[in-house]
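Question:
When you can, review this sequence-structure pair and walk me through the tokens.
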Amino acid sequence: MKDISPQRHPAASPRASSDTEKTTEEKIRKKTLAGKLNAAGFRFGIVVSRFNEFITERLLRSAYDGLSRLGAREKDIQIVRVPGSFEIPSAARTLAETQKYDAIVCLGCLLRGDTAHYDVIVNEVTRGIGQSAQETGVPHAFGILTCDTLEQAIDRAGLKMGNKGFEAALAAVEMANLKKATTRKKARSSQQSAALTNKAVSSQPSAISRSMAKKASSRQPSAFSKSTRQNRSARSKKRKSKS
């Protein structure tokens, strides 16, 4: 069997390899754009379903607590309640289209039953939330539990598996910061491009300027033209008569 594992150069020392790895890590760090976990100055919408309220209330409390801990003010958090998870995408899109919110947190709980209803709802809710985020440009955090049993949902609502509401809040904050950083970088790049374009245009005379300069030069009499020679002769005779 052929050995396809990467071969280390015999002359490469461990120190040189370590220096190369550090240089690579530094380059990656400089090229990486990531959102911060700082909710100060951002506005958030939380859409939560009342169905399986025993679970969704735990998700809501944890999400609200997460946003508050990261610096979001009470007046910058809007909570919207809907009947079930199927209505979450519609409400989330309504909030996002106002362009008043930097991110939307979607919270709900779906439990598998004996029919195909569960699969239909899960697919539609997932598709609707993703479509809303892509078409409005507002980040949507997915905090909807899709579990087979109630015990699994309880574990993911703060018992054994953490709280998915809190995790969704963290994702919303990070994405809001990432969008802001990306927009700022894009605006800076556009300004630099505009400045370079203006500089290039100003350094080259326009076609109108060249045309006007050509016309002006054509209107000025040449030193060897007939009118110029006559003027010089008249001035010379005038000086002689005075003398």
